[in-house]
Amino acid sequence: MGNLSSITKSVHNRGEIVLKFLTKLDYLLKETFLGLQRGGWMNWAAISTVTVLLFLFGMSLQTSWQLETLLNQFGSQLEVSVYLDSNARVETVEPLVARMPEVVNIKTITKEQAWSNLVKELGLADIEGATQQLGGNPLVDELKVKARNSDVVPTLATQLAKLRGVETVKYVDEAVRRISQLHQGLNWLTLTITMILTVTAIAVTTITIRLIVVARRQEIEIMQLVGATSSWVYLPFILQGIAFGLVGGAIAWSFISIIQQFVGNLLVNQPEFIQFLSNGLRLTTVQTLLLPFILLSFGATVGLIGSLFAVRRFVNS
């Protein structure tokens, strides 16, 4: 009987705790919704500001990810062409190149293969005759070396040029350098815009919540007279600020998704090089899932900071 009574009492206590929690949650939700109703058009001013902030931030972050992916894609397809001396052979140089940690793949083209391909491209059927007229094969052996990524290409080219038997090293790094500079510039621009708009969004949220608090000042005083604590009274206003950020984040993410689909459909029937670029602009699965989480978290943080600034003065007064 004693055990049964203890179990019954424990269940009853837990039921009371759950009931109190649900009652408090119901109060918070009702007060939050009531505050949003009192806010009127100012709610949309705060949400619009947060939406603009998160949209520009999300687009900049997405573009930064895409440029980084594109850089890696260029790096994986960018080959360093290594031309050997006329007296050197690929069998001698290739093992030295293969030992370099920056190298992921090597393709050898002997001078006989290169000469044969060149003669065919020129439309000449008599390879031996063309060789005799030029006094022999004028070409040299070549190695096409694929780097691990775009960052190591200049260093790798310098190392390859120092190898014995290597005459010339060529690689096209201008496109990679331009994209890298664009990537860095975009990061700085994103940081600047984000800081300015974050301050603006916090300010607008603070003003909006403060106006709502002023409009409900009489109700708040009554609640304080009957014993409600300041933190309990002003918690719904903090939730309103968080709601502004979450709604703004959701709207911004929807706009970004629409733009993604539009651009994706636009690039479907484009030339091969544009298709190559579009493949580099695709986000990974992790990035696709991470972007809305970042936007919602950032928006909620901005709303929280703005609402805390708004109620701080009233709590201390």
Shape: elongated
| Uncertain stretches of 5 or more adjacent residues | none
Mean pLDDT: 75
Order of helices and strands: HHEHEHHEHEHHHHH
- Report how far the terminal alpha carbons are from each other: 55 Å
Number of domains: 2
Main β-sheet description: 4 strands, antiparallel
Percent strand: 5-15%
Work out the radius of gyration: 33 Å
Would you report the number of β strands? 4
The multimeric state of the shown protein is: single chain
Q: What class, by secondary structure content?
A: alpha+beta
Number of helices: 11
What does this structure look like?
There is one protein chain. This protein has eleven helices and four strands. With 317 residues, it is of the alpha+beta class. Helix 1 (2-39) crosses helix 9 (230-266), helix 2 (41-77) packs antiparallel against helix 7 and helix 9 packs antiparallel against helix 11. The longest helix is centred in the middle third of the chain and has 42 residues, at 174-215.
